[in-house]
Design brief:
heterodimer, A: 109 residues, mainly beta, 6-stranded mixed sheet, 0% helix, globular, B: mainly beta
Chain lengths: 109, 117
């Protein structure tokens, strides 16, 4: 079967760095997405990884290890506007998205 | 920018009522999806469509049906609403097979909050 796990909630301080982990189990893999969702709003695309390693986009980076079934989203120089839920999604062998429950990130001043 | 518009943000319906949730996308996308989002659970796929008049069941189709008469419009229908269908419903679209390597990602509407009483 397929399974995705991510922490339910995390708290961090403005200006700091936070790492949100996502672990998965799957028989087929075509990539992993991260989406950001502010309360009451649509999820929006942040990153996609299909090869091992780190992809950097400004303050946000995403890492993938396929052998370990593990990804993380790294947010640097945290701003209050980064308070949101972060959704990890696996693209399976049928190109269907399997979603994690999301991690609610709370930023404190 | 891609825009996915859901016609109703907040609805309150009675048990047994028929409910229509409408979704329109403006980027000529082939694929459209309906998800529901509940606390502590990931997005769960209800139905999706790869073409006009075509539909496929997702993971939780029971109690729902869909209609895609035009490419830009995908409707979710609750034939007889029940309290366990109280949820946030998200419509989404994608230009083709979701494949981040080619840049094809999924675009969401802002959601429809449905309460069934």
């Amino acid at each position: 079967g397929q399974n995705i796990d991510q922490p339910t909630e995390m708290t961090a301080t403005e200006g700091a760095i936070v790492q949100i982990n996502c672990t998965y189990q799957t028989s087929g893999f075509n990539g992993l997405f991260w989406y950001q969702q502010h309360a009451g709003e649509a999820p929006t695309f942040l990153s996609y990884n299909v090869l091992d390693g780190l992809e950097e986009k400004g303050r946000f980076s995403s890492f993938l290890s396929r052998s370990k079934g593990y990804s993380y989203l790294l947010l640097k120089e945290l701003q209050m506007k980064d308070s949101a839920s972060y959704l990890c999604a696996l693209l399976d062998s049928n190109y269907q998205l399997i979603w994690g429950a999301g991690t609610k990130l709370i930023i404190k001043p | 920018d891609v825009k996915v518009t859901q016609s109703s943000r907040y609805l309150v319906k009675r048990t047994g009522e028929k409910v229509f949730l409408e979704c329109v996308q403006d980027m000529d996308h082939e694929n459209m999806f309906w998800y529901r989002q509940d606390p502590g659970l990931g997005l769960r796929l209800i139905y999706f469509s790869y073409d006009v008049k075509m539909k496929e069941k997702g993971d939780i189709p029971e109690g729902y049906s869909v209609s895609r008469e035009k490419k830009e419009r995908f409707s979710l229908i609750l034939e007889s609403a029940s309290t366990n269908q109280t949820s946030m419903y998200l419509c989404a679209s994608s230009p083709g097979t979701v494949d981040g390597a080619s840049g094809n990602t999924i675009y969401f509407g802002e959601g429809s909050w449905l309460t069934v009483v």
